[in-house]
Amino acid sequence: MKRILVTGAGGQIGVELVPYLRSRYGAENVLATARKPLSGPVGEGGPFALLDVRDGNAFAALAQSFGADSILHLAGVLSAKGESDPRASWDINVVGSTTALEVARECGAAFFFPSSIAAFGPSTPSKNTPQDTIQRPTTIYGVAKVTLELLCDYYHRKFGLDTRGLRFPGLISYEALPGGGTTDYAVHIYYDAVRKGRYTSFIAAGTYMDMMYMPDALAAVVQLMEADPSKLVHRNAFNISAMSFDPEEIAGSIRKFLPGFILDYNVDPLRQSIAESWPDSLDCTAAREEWGFAPEYDLDRMTEDMLARVREKEGLPPA
Ligand code: AKB
Fold first, then answer.
1. Which residues form the pocket of ligand 1, taking CB atoms under 6 Å from any ligand atom?
2. How far apart, in whole angstroms, are the C-alpha atoms of residue 162 and residue 176?
3. pTM of the model as a whole
């Protein structure tokens, strides 16, 4: 990657990925785009442009004038939010993404997109979910992710486009809050632990989902994009995960650092049913073998860092 265009730069991943890329590839070589103006490191730390990803002409003109050799297409609507307006979710997640694929084809740019554990459904084997398996998701978000995975395969086979993707698990981070996802509880729990010493979970005890700390996710994107293309068998998206836990286990990890922490439940039926339709744990062998995926954070190491970072953000002294 030398000239990188990032869409959806104001989202949970974008606000961290853009500065990470700028520190590696040079600020001037990473063009951040979003639908709304952004302040801070993303909007002000390097080139920035307004872009609605559904506007193919504007998108192509921007990619061409910047000389993009890589398009990292992050713009999207998350799982739970998608269910409140499936049509709008489709519009952004599929129409916007097919536009992004076409722009990448016109520019001869490599194309990255974040797929998700949402690309699986209730008929997928839920434990140690294989890389290649049944994908019949029940959310509009998941249907869009499968569509994009298939399109990435198609564009690679038909046009030789350099497509690469990651099936992200729940991502835990402290720079920007996720919005409208099912795994969001695993971020909120840290904020409430620091602010109130307690958290009410909208996901039930015993519900396992794959998760990963943001520094590992950022490293994975760069590692995959820099991987030797001849080693990549999968051009749709790779299973990746660093840990799998339920609300009780993350609470247990928090109690190692905040012994009085209290967890109770007020389960949200929509997000609970989505969570139950997703895998409990992914098999990441293909990612390890094809491009060397190796996350560094386990649950306790992540918890220690998250609690410290959230305290800092809240203006509290170190514990
Ligand atoms: C969501 O919960 O919607 C996302 C995801 C797993 O794709 N975090």
1. 78-79, 116-118, 168, 170, 178, 181-183
2. 30
3. 0.97
